[in-house]
Amino acid sequence: MIFLNSLAGMVRVVVETLLNSIWQGIALTAVVFCLLCVFRQINAATRYLIWFVILLVVVSLPLLNGMPISSGVSTISSAIFGVYQRFVSDDSQPDNTSLSEKAAVNRRPIPFSQEEVNMLQSSIPNSLEEIASEERAGEVTLSEQTQKASALDNSQPTSRRFLIPLLLGRWSLLLFFGWILTTMGMLVRVVKGYRYAQRLKQSCFPLAPKYQDRFHRWLKSIGIRRGVRLCGSHEIHAPMAIGLIKPVILIPRRLVDGLTDAEFDLVLLHELAHLKRWDDWTNFAQKLTEALLFFHPAVWWIGRRLYIEREIACDDWVVALSGESRSYAFCLTKLIEFGLWLRRPAVATGAAWSKKNITRRIEMLLDKKRNATHRFSKLGVLAILCALTIAFVSSIKILPVVALTESSSSAVEPSSQTKESAEVSDGNKQTAEIGHASQTSVKSEQQQLVSELAKALRNESEEVRLNIVEVLKEIGQPAVPALTEALSDESEKVREKAADAIGDIGEKAQAAVPALIEMLNDVSEEVRVEAADALGDMRASSQEAISALIKALSDESKDLRRIAAEALGNIGEPAKDAVPALMEVLNDESEAVRRKAIEALGDISAAAKSAVPALMEILNDESKSLRRKAIEALGEIGTPAAPAVPALIKALNSKSDDIQEEASKALGKIGEPAIPELEKALRYGSKSLRRQIANLLGDIGEPAVPLLIEMLNDTSESMRREAADELGDIGELAAPAVPALMKALSDESERVRREATDALEDIGSVAAPALIKALNDPSESVRRAAADLLGDIEASSQETISALIQALNDESKKVRWEAADSLGDLKATSREAVSALIQILDDESDDVRRRAVEALGEIGAPAQTIVPALIKAMRDESEKVRREAAKALKQIGAPE
Length: 896
Fold this sequence. Notes:
By secondary structure, the protein is mainly α.
């Protein structure tokens, strides 16, 4: 009997905990979804990381619901930070480092220390164990357990909680065992999927040597060291990466025969990206989570988001390596033709899993406005996770506790709730006092910790010193002196790790600059590389640091030359003295070094104008990557790069979409000096070139307005449409184009007229004088558009109101109703406007009368004048007018 009572108590606790976690997980998921909707420019890799962290948080909620709040918040905060640190540690290089260069840098994993393990273990509360043991002894009744749980919770600084008693009785046992059995069934499915994947590994066959050679070149370039194999299979319909232990990339036999070499590389890169990102392991963890919390809607919704973001992130990797977004999109269309949305094992990752999602990925690849970078945005992740932590703490404070009872007598009485409130108040006060005392002692404790760690750096073993450096890095700026001392350690690994730690601290570690400059002469190449990297991360702009990095550009180590060039680029304009040295490096034997030198010249911006001729020469280089980087650098230099305009216009004719896009951006950044050459190209260039030039004129802005006005008279419909569109993008500064745009409202092409209308609306209120003038245009369509736009741009001046009142007498009923509409949009409450609208309630056109009634309803005042007119309109012969009058009276608030 005692055992059954104990079992019933345990079941109630488990079921309550699981039920309580559902609403909390949904709330946290909704918060993050809203934040991601606000920050739309976060890339797919970062969104994937964020959703994976949220999944871990949702999984942890059943455990945290039973904890005291302080320990729960501490544990979840530590977990969030730990996952964030581990995900971004492999991506700690700056964003302008290529994947192949990044793969050459060896990062040590960050293990949990024993102290961290002890901290996590100590945070687990034993309240449930105490309750269970007391229940086994028959000492605690159900109501006493409920009171004790309330006391435990209210010992923390929580706000008032809600109580939702569920009279489930024995049904809680059925729920519990149903959960156990379903979870076991789901886990069996995962095991079957794993066994099926292993069977595929055993039955696969190696592909031809030419594919293996391409495969190994990409492996080396990306830097994957997981022992991956490339094989073919007759049993699968889609490419897939089967990971976990001894990963294999499987390609369907019929797909190998149906793809070109370039398309095969794109598919292969996608699967390699999965393994590089360790998607096989995160996917496996996701499957286990879905099995454990199969009932949780947030888990399944997050799972779908992870599938989508995982594939898009891998697509971004492919484009970053190949530079061929459109070619890859075309390759994906081939996958649809091959029918590659069929079954795949649950533990495998692959290039597609549904036709709908392949289509969406193609749209993402062709969307040039989205953020397609493939690296994690550390600031974006940190901001979202901070907001998540705040939301998590808030949700715990208002946690509605679900209590399972056998009868209504188990509910908490009002008197006990009053007692809870008093205990909560005392808990809040006590916590505030403890928090204040803790804050005052943090600084001194931190200093003492750094001092003790610095002593240990002199005496402990190499492995311990390496761990100490890692701890000092997490402490940050206060640890800079100790890390600087570690730069002279006898161990090469310690010196390397110390330099890396100082670089991670960033600009706050300026005190270490002299020591890092000295480390550029270290006997170890790895240490020299880390020292140069740290100087760049710190943006060390002192003359000594820049001179040392310039000297490093001629080092025998190509890695050091590359990192030194990158560091000078990070420093930016203050490194302008390095321009001559960087120009010399443009002839380096290593393409990676040349690429970083080009990027650095672009980062130095206008101060690197002397490098323009050298960068123009690279536009003829056989390397597409270098040509693209040179074009980008010329754009960053800006106006001083005007001599390169003819060469950049020529690049607009490139067969490569990426080259065309970069050339267009560069010409837009050069701006006004590029206009004369662009005008020539518009007159004599090919149709495709003229269209590209039209697209980039909007980026140049106001100086390009005269040329765009001229284009509105072009014989090509597409050119006129592009001109109107770009004028709209320029906005208010395109006000001189308003007369030409008004003329375009009579264009024979509907698409041109629509673009001209949109452009006038985008230009805004500065277009009002020209629109007022257009109300007297001989063309009915122009007058109608002008009347409509005056309301859309909210040009509510007295001159506008008077012009619209006059337009109410136009011979065209369409102009009259547009004028009435605009007066309503502008809420023209003047006596003249209201009287004019009341007067046209006798108009011969039903549509005009209806629009006038609608406008009076929107204006609303003076009611003593408008209401009688609307009541009269209730007797109109047109049903539409009568219905609109009733609606207007309700809007004003008057009786019908």
